[in-house]
Specification:
Layout (H helix, E strand, L loop, with lengths): L4 E2 L8 E7 L3 H6 L3 H9 L9 E5 L5 E8 L19 E5 L2 H14 L15 E3 L6 H19 L7 H14 L3 E6 L2 H4 L3 H7 L7 E7 L6 E6 L1 E5 L8 H4 L7 H15 L5 E11 L11 E3 L5 E3 L7 H13 L5 E6 L3 H7 L5 E4 L2 H13 L5 E2 L17 E2 L8 H10 L8 E5 L3 E2 L9 E2 L4 H12 L1
Parallel strand pairs: 1-6, 2-4, 2-5, 5-6, 9-11, 9-14, 10-11, 13-17, 14-18, 15-16
Antiparallel strand pairs: 3-4, 7-8, 8-11, 12-13, 15-18, 19-20
Length: 457
């Protein structure tokens, strides 16, 4: 059980948290005692959305907390509470219908990354009443903690071998099978793209492969970009451009977090997770612009830019993924700066080759306040990936539409008949917001899990 939650009503009296809609605040205030009215006036509380106020009793003890919501589904407001309220035990004055999402918001707001720096406090604790699905709350919150922590880890403690260990540990925890192909064995098994990108590192490149579930169930395959650090290779990034590149394995962290949700919930799917885990380093044997790689699918790739390495390693992993003709294929990657230019850092881009799949996913994203935005696989831009000496170039011939051309590159390795979702996301909060602290972040996972439960559960 997470430290920020309590399973059932404790003997000790808990403090109520009252959520009030901004539009209802004036009417609510009219019904309060003269003491509360005076207190809120004295503390200049205006009732704006997101505002929180601690209200004492006549003895000076904390009696209740009020929190103003922008609308009835504004569960992120609860995320601001566990690390801002005094340590203690609280309960929401909410219907069970809304309690679950508000509890998830509370749990996500309690996250702290404490591996290298001790926390100055414990989060406040929330009582989960019997009518709330506590397992579901814990599953989502713990899985997102898992994703955040993997991304926050510096590469010295989360390189390809450590990412492999984390995957193996997850497999053991849920009785899944795990195997990996490491180093030059990648060449022997025709994974030249993965090997070539990662060969300059002293931590060998590898392809991680986790399987779980029964073969009779629908096949769901997840592919995550596991570039544990990206220097850019010989097309080296600037110092500022490398600052956050420990997060370039964010796609791998996402698919592991989603796999954890699936396995913990025991969804009736046949799950496979594939992660090409590499470090894109600079050394005497680093791959070069102009080199040609023969991918696992047999497509030859001219290296237009060594900093477009994510699509190279994903190409080999996708080729394996589609060989089993999954009912749904999802890849997640911190792939392009172009997607961030188009949509900013807080709105993940999604590409899809089948309208119904992405339309249904968007419904869940909107319901769960886990936003995504569809970008097109605009076929006319495919020509920008043409090469004079190979089947395709890994880099577009101009600087326009970079997220789209990256998606079109990956599309070369996915047959049209396989339903495919491709996510290009930031995996990082540049600023802290309620329930979403600065640092590594799981984006679109709640939406994806909700969609998978609805479709396969």
């Amino acid at each position: 059980m997470l430290i920020c939650f309590i399973n059932s009503m404790p003997k000790k009296k808990t403090i109520p948290v009252v959520f009030i809609l901004k539009v209802d605040f004036t009417e609510w205030l009219k019904k309060q005692t003269s003491f509360i009215k005076s207190w809120l006036t004295t503390t200049q509380f205006r009732g704006d959305a997101g505002q929180v106020r601690l209200i004492p009793n006549q003895a000076g003890e904390l009696a209740q907390v009020i929190c103003i919501l922008s609308d009835v589904k504004d569960f992120w407001a609860a995320g601001a509470l566990p690390l801002s309220l005094p340590e203690g035990q609280y309960h929401f004055e909410l219907s069970n219908e809304n309690y679950l999402q508000f509890a998830i918001g509370w749990g996500l707001g309690a996250y702290q990354f404490t591996r290298y720096k001790k926390s100055t406090r414990l989060p406040a604790q929330l009582v989960l009443p019997k009518g709330v699905d506590q397992k579901q709350v814990n599953n989502i919150v713990e899985s997102i903690y898992f994703v955040r922590t993997l991304i926050n880890m510096p590469t010295e403690d989360m390189g390809p071998s450590e990412l492999s260990a984390a995957t193996a540990h997850l497999a053991k925890q849920y009785k899944a099978t795990f195997k990996e192909i490491v180093g030059k064995d990648l060449l022997k098994q025709n994974f030249a793209s993965i090997y070539t990108v990662g060969r300059a590192s002293d931590d060998a490149p590898r392809l991680l492969d986790l399987r779980w579930g029964l073969k009779k169930h629908p096949k769901v395959t997840l592919v995550g970009k596991g570039v544990c650090f990206d220097t850019g290779g010989l097309d080296i990034k600037t110092a500022s451009g490398m600052q956050l590149m420990k997060k370039d394995m964010g796609g791998a962290a996402h698919v592991l977090g989603l796999a954890r949700m699936i396995m913990e919930a025991k969804l009736p799917v046949c799950l496979r997770v594939l992660i090409p885990a590499v470090e894109n380093s600079v050394s005497g044997n680093a791959y070069r612009p102009g080199d040609v790689i023969t991918s696992h699918k047999g497509i030859t790739i001219e290296v237009g830019n060594t900093d477009a390495e994510g699509r190279l390693v994903l190409a080999d992993a996708l080729s394996v993924a589609v060989s089993e003709k999954p009912d749904l294929l999802i890849d997640i990657a911190t792939l392009t700066g172009a997607a961030r230019v188009a949509l900013g850092t807080e709105l993940p881009a999604v590409f899809c080759n089948q309208d119904k799949v992405v339309e249904d996913l968007v419904v869940h994203a909107n319901q769960l306040r886990d936003p995504i935005w569809r970008l097109p696989l605009f076929g006319l831009y495919r020509d920008s990936l043409n090469s004079l000496i190979a089947d395709i170039n890994n880099n577009g011939c101009d600087s326009y539409g970079g997220a789209i051309t990256a998606g079109l590159f990956l599309k070369e390795f996915v047959p049209d008949e396989i339903p495919w979702l491709h996510f290009d996301l930031m995996a990082w909060n540049l600023r802290g917001r309620a329930g979403r602290p600065q640092g590594g972040e799981a984006m679109a996972l709640r939406a994806l899990f909700g969609y998978l439960v609805d479709r396969f559960g």
